[in-house]
């Protein structure tokens, strides 16, 4: 968690992530201001930034769980300091980080008074609650239940399917092992099953809950990596259009991993 780690990502991550890795000299996506002082930090949010940020997101640019939180931060225009956790160096298992999140996972949100939240969906809810007028997490019981339904579906169902596929593509490459075709095929079958659920839900709708909500950011985050995962959306036109709609948003574009 230092300036060096952010400006010079560990070579193993750059190499292993192949076409997702940023080339030397390429810049953080537009909108992520590079902190001028050391500390491995990027500040995001609507300028002008307050002199002192109270929110810090410990994350990694290549984490899909962190991507959704970054997108929501941009969408809400909250000033947050991003701190890159170098997972290749095991920083997420350091005593200092485990004190913030005993799971040793990113993303993790920390406030100046020491308040911590982990689990990306919980972090998004916490951030959206700071700006209820955004409507990303409706306050009415039914609206909230529908958004929560999709957040739970993402955490229990879609993340499991997409993780199986990521393990045999992105992570297999990262760890230098060959793809297990049987596991990949089994994972893809589950991803297609889940895409069919999304396809049906999105019939005649712009967003999963009608209006843009946390549900959209949570679920689309895994599909941003569809190309390296080998996921084809041609058979799911509603999903394809919904992904394009979200990827066209500035908040999502600014959150993409460095290419
Ligand atoms: N359910 C968690 C998943 C977090 C997660 O698995 N993060 C990965 C990066 S995408 C991680 O930190 N992995 C490190 C590890 O499991 O040791 C969330 O949504 O925040």
Automatic annotation (TrEMBL):
Gene3D superfamilies named in the record: 1.20.1050.10, Glutaredoxin (3.40.30.10)
Chain positions covered by the region annotation Disordered: 1-45
InterPro entries associated with the record: Glutathione-S-Trfase_C-like, Glutathione-S-Trfase_C_sf, Glutathione_S-Trfase, Glutathione_S-Trfase_N, GST_C, Thioredoxin-like_sf
GO MF term list: transferase activity
Keywords: Transferase
Domain GST N-terminal: 53-135
PROSITE patterns (UniProt xref): GST_CTER, GST_NTER
Pfam families in UniProt: GST_C (PF00043), GST_N (PF02798)
GST C-terminal domain boundaries: 140-259
Family note: Belongs to the GST superfamily.
PANTHER family: GLUTATHIONE S-TRANSFERASE GSTA (PTHR44051:SF8), GLUTATHIONE S-TRANSFERASE-RELATED (PTHR44051)
Protein name: Glutathione S-transferase
UniProt source species: Archangium gephyra
